[in-house]
Specification:
Main location: membrane
CATH topology of the largest domain: Thrombin, subunit H
Membrane topology: Single-pass type II membrane protein
Helix content: 10-25%
CATH superfamily of the largest domain: Trypsin-like serine proteases
Bound molecules: 4-(aminomethyl)benzoic acid
GO cellular component, one term: membrane
CATH class of the largest domain: Mainly Beta
Shape: globular
CATH architecture of the largest domain: Beta Barrel
Number of helices: 11
Structural class: alpha+beta
InterPro entries: CUB_dom, LDL_receptor-like_sf, LDLR_class-A_CS, LDrepeatLR_classA_rpt, Peptidase_S1_PA, Peptidase_S1_PA_chymotrypsin, SEA_dom, SEA_dom_sf
Subcellular location: Membrane
Length: 806
């Protein structure tokens, strides 16, 4: 090889130098040597340089040990304290009123006295400013500034955390008189930027105020900003903040909104930190404990649509100040009490081990805490008309609390006209033995006498008849999949009966359950290439020539696995090569982000929301992505998987990032792939292709294996069913469009999740697989009555053809 032209560097060996280069003998060797030895002048320069270096080192040392210890940093603390011997007056809201100024002066002077009791604090204390007063008796919010020597910050933080003790000591010494009596002091170190001024809003009864991020809704919010909104309600009220839109950068490290149960940012009074995107169906609402609330927003290098929130006031149900309150509600004698928690958010560091020694709710002596109650904890019953519910919260942190409904029950009959589950839940009687786990503990599905329209499983369970012989083990003991073989000229009814193929769609109910007469509608005609229509459901690629021109059987190299077909069971590892059309989309220098489906040697279908620009990630650009085909494990990216770059991305022009309508995009590979056992395309359905409600379909992906959890390493598959559009639209608060459909398991537990987006919802049809849907969105993951939402591919068949030719 020619090294020079190959661009490699030429590094000769010593031997080669010996061969090729000759050193000339020196004409005057003395002259040559002399040049190398320093003269007197050189010695002088060396001494000077040495002296300069020594002087510099000494200088740095002196600076370090003498002056640096005096280098100080500004340290700010925010705090609040209750002044128990003053009553709140509206004039305290106006920081220019003489009353505000007078009380502020007293608080500042008292703070100075308090800090003077601590040697750590008195040395470095500079000044305090009063930010606001609020009701209860009077709460003062202040910022205190310290000037702290470098290295002493932790000691001052420590001293500030014991200010409450200093206040107690001071109170014990205090003579009765005009001084302020202080209590409930809380402080926290403050990011210096947080001391900037705030927007102030006072909400009045019957008025709905709004706060929103700058530029909303016309422009994304600006970068590197910090904004604060101090919200107040009239005394005796609390504030309710309801977010309509909320769309920030997904990482809270970068951009966030924090809501405090206070007027200044005190970390122990932080109610919630929010970031990312919250869909409108998953409304975010927060209630303050008193008549004040602080909302802060910080942004860094990104720019997203932002948020808008409504601010309203509510009457406070609990007067503040009383250390303990008894709220007695009467339930008639002879009755029992049932309490059902509807919300439960009592998270607190230190409470994780569930011994509930911090904040808790105690029902009849049983303590509950945390932010997740399991089904058996959500209802508590008492056989007498007395139930004691104690709510206890220590001072260390706030959270949103709980809400519960109670009702008087007949102890003999606690669930009138309903079924009583083992875990005390009451469910509608018609839900008993219907095949779904409605109680949560399966007690509604045990000891069943199955109805005529149900399958009686050997293990005692009942399952809907239309699940019989559908290829999925619904009973758990496979009894619903036995005796399914009808002869080749017969069709299998949903009730398992076999009737002659000729009886299908002949206008009479030969199955007895009508299933031989469904999907016979004339509007489900298939249009052949020659524009002639045939009325057969899903004739494409079924192996039968239905169109005169055979166009229903053209382009059918799709939807087949190489190996033998494997059965689909919910939520488990896929087999290698089982879903050869599944693609993993990686953002360069990151890992898996979304799924996609292969539809030809060089075209993929994914979700439009996967290819929206995000902060510094330009996901709409082909160059941002790396495409993995034939992949099974995310930690084995090499052969038989193939990697490709992208030539182009085509998001649907009508994609709506607020509603997720038209959530579909196309990607073209920079070079086509050859089909292998692990890489094959899925079939695209014709616009008329029917995916009937109740049909078992499969979702696949490397997404999170539980809501908020981490991504899977091995490709996962789960079987779900297509859900009726009207039923689902009601469950999803009317947010479905005709370009979406739902699939899932309504009792929860099986679903797509974050990271599965863009991937396929695969529907079997004969021996082939069709791309019925693209994973799009959902209300969390695998929640009960919250199925996954998928882009309806049939609606986009013509668009795909137009853009890709496939
Ligand atoms: C997501 O964030 C996502 N449960 C995808 C699907 C679902 C929820 C979230 C459906 O990519």
């Amino acid at each position: 090889m020619d090294y020079m032209s190959s661009g490699m560097r030429y590094i000769p060996s010593d031997k080669e130098w010996d061969n090729d280069v000759q050193f000339l003998p020196a004409a005057d060797s003395n002259k040559l040597e002399k040049k190398r030895r320093p003269g007197k002048f050189g010695a002088v320069i060396a001494v000077v340089v040495l002296a300069v270096v020594i002087a510099l080192v000494i200088g740095v040392l002196v600076w370090h040990f003498h002056f640096r210890k005096d280098m100080r940093v500004k340290r700010m603390y925010s705090g609040s304290m209750r002044i128990t011997n003053r009553a709140f007056d509206d004039v305290y809201e106006n920081s220019t009123s003489p009353e505000f100024k007078a009380l502020a002066k007293q608080v500042i002077s008292q703070l100075k006295t308090i800090y003077s009791k601590s040697p750590q604090l008195s040395k470095y204390y500079r000044d305090s400013t009063i930010q606001a007063f609020s009701e209860g008796s009077v709460i003062a919010y202040y910022l205190s500034e310290f000037s702290v020597p470098v290295g002493q910050e932790a000691a001052v933080d420590n001293a500030m955390s014991s200010v409450e003790t200093l206040v107690k000591k001071q109170r014990a010494l205090q003579n009765s008189g005009d001084g302020l009596t202080l209590d409930d002091v809380v402080t926290s170190a403050l990011d210096d930027r947080m001391s900037s001024p705030s927007f102030r809003k006072h909400t009045k009864a019957n008025l709905i105020g709004h706060i929103q991020s700058p530029g909303f809704p016309n422009k994304p919010y600006p970068r590197n900003t910090l904004i604060k909104w101090q919200l107040r309600a009239d005394p005796g009220h609390v504030l309710k903040l309801d977010f309509g839109t909320f769309d920030l950068e997904s990482s809270c490290k970068s951009d966030f909104v924090k809501i405090y149960d206070s007027l200044v940012p005190i970390e122990s009074l932080l109610m919630v930190e929010l970031c990312g995107k919250h869909l409108p169906n998953n409304r975010l609402g927060f209630l303050s404990s008193g008549n004040v609330m602080l909302v802060t927003m910080a942004t860094h290098n990104s720019s997203f649509p932002g948020f808008r929130a409504a601010v309203q006031l509510h009457f406070s149900q609990f007067p503040k100040l009383l250390p303990s309150q008894n709220d007695v509600r009467l339930v008639p004698a002879g009755k029992g009490v049932k309490l059902t928690f509807t919300k439960f958010l009592l998270a607190e560091p230190g409470n994780e081990n569930m011994d509930c020694n911090k904040d808790y709710v105690m029902v009849n002596g049983k303590k509950l805490c945390g932010d997740k109650l399991d089904k058996s904890q959500q209802t508590e019953t008492s056989n007498t008309n007395s139930m004691t519910v104690v709510f206890s919260s220590d001072k260390s942190r706030v959270d949103r609390g709980f809400s519960a409904e109670y009702e008087a029950i007949d102890v003999q009959n606690p669930c009138p006209q309903k079924f009583q589950c083992r875990n005390s839940n009451c469910i509608k009687s018609e839900l008993r033995c219907d095949g779904w786990n409605d109680c949560g503990d399966m007690s509604d599905e045990q000891e069943c006498t199955c109805r005529a329209d149900s399958i009686s499983c050997k293990n005692g369970l009942c399952k809907p008849m239309f699940w019989k012989c559908d290829g999925i083990d619904d009973c758990g003991d496979n009894t619903d999949e036995l005796n399914c073989g009808c002869k080749s000229a017969e069709v299998t009814c949903k009730n398992g009966k076999c009737v002659s193929e000729k009886m299908r769609c002949d206008g009479s109910d030969d199955c007895g359950d009508g299933s031989d007469e469904v999907n016979c509608a004339r509007d489900l005609t298939y249009k052949c290439k020659n524009n002639k229509c045939i009325s057969k459901v899903n004739p494409e690629c079924d192996g039968v020539k239905d169109c005169e021109d055979n166009s229903d059987e053209e382009n059918c190299d799709c939807g087949k696995r190489a190996g033998k077909a494997s059965r689909i069971v919910g939520g488990q590892d896929a087999e290698v090569g089982e879903f050869p059309w599944q693609i993993s989309l990686h953002v360069k220098k990151h890992s898996h982000v979304c799924g996609a489906s292969l539809i030809s040697p060089d075209w993929l279908v994914t979700a439009a929301h996967c290819v929206q620009d995000e902060a510094s990630l330009k996901l709409s650009q082909a160059g941002a992505w790396e495409i993995y085909l034939g992949l099974h494990r995310q930690n084995q990216l090499g052969s038989p998987a193939e990697k490709r770059n992208l030539k182009q991305i085509i998001p649907h022009p009508n994609y709506n990032s607020f509603t997720f309508d038209n959530d579909i995009a196309l990607m073209q590979l920079d070079s086509p792939v050859s089909y292998t056992d692990y890489i094959r395309p899925i079939c695209l359905p014709s616009p008329q292709h029917d995916f009937p409600v109740g049909e078992g379909v499969t979702i696949t992906g490397w997404g999170a294996t539980r809501e908020g959890g981490s991504a899977a390493t091995v490709l996962q598959k789960a079987s779900v069913r297509i859900i009726n559009q009207t039923v689902c639209n009601n469950l999803m608060g009317g947010q479905l469009t005709s370009r979406m459909f739902c699939a899932g398991v309504l009792s929860g537990g099986v679903d797509a999740c974050q990271g599965d987006s863009g991937g396929p919802l695969t529907s079997p049809s004969g021996s082939r697989a069709f791309l019925a849907g693209v994973v799009s969105w959902g209300d969390g993951c695998a929640r009960r009555n919250k199925p996954g939402i998928y882009t309806r591919v049939t609606k986009f068949r013509a668009w795909i053809k137009e853009k890709t030719g496939v």
